Amino acid sequence: MSKDYWDSLAPSFEQSVMQIAEHDLDSTLKNQIRRVAKGRRLAADLGCGVGSLLPLLCQSFSKVYAVDFSSALLQEAKNRLKHPNVHFVQHNLAGDRRLPWTADVTFCVNALITARPSHRKKIGLSVFKATKKAGLSVIVVPSLESVFHTYHTIVRCNVKDGYKRHHAMRSVNRLFKTEVVSPADGIVNIGDSPTKCFMREEITTFLSDIGFEVAKIQRVQYPWHEEMTNAPSWLKAPYPWDWLVLARRPK
Hints:
By secondary structure, the protein is α/β, with parallel strands linked by helices. Helices cover about 40% and strands about 25% of the residues. It is built from 10 helices and 10 strands. A 7-stranded mixed β-sheet has the order 3-2-1-4-5-10-9, with helices on both faces. The protein has a 3-stranded antiparallel β-sheet with strand order 6-7-8. Strand 2 (about 65-70), helix 6 (about 70-80) and strand 3 form a beta-alpha-beta unit. The radius of gyration is 18 Å and the shape is globular.
């Protein structure tokens, strides 16, 4: 995903990319922000996009860095939020240059989604290096388990609507083949983009290999209509979800 790609999304970013901060059913992310902000002053939103997380961060931290590779997305974020304690920074997290400061708490919300493993590692290392020693990082990534849960749920819905199960399975298997680029690597076509999705254990080991200590992992659930077209009204929990990881950089 190049800078030009992300720049092109700026006018329709919220329609193209789900903003988990705005669809968090249980306020899991909001509550985590409040907890990690206690006694901490400086936060950094790494891969901020159009800034959907920034209003929450501004309420909890006295200074916030908003970082993104795309100048167009940063400009959109600036237009939406004019707050004196936010500082906007254009920076390539997958590049070789590190940020010139560290934050008490870093946030990386669905920025570790590139299909290229080398870029994911560089982004992860950038998040680690931007976090103060003994500081915290809140990281959200798409869940691969949730992808499979959605396929199973589509079958369930179709059977409930009167389809024979083997016909429902055949239809979902065709969908699977068009959407899942690599089951082993967790690469799924979301919209028009190959997107990295993580298993729970995978994101834990990924962050541990970078140097983080994983303190907690939980689900950030979002509505079915964000995952399925014409989701039936009777469809409730378990909802689709992203993984939220609370990690600590050692002293």
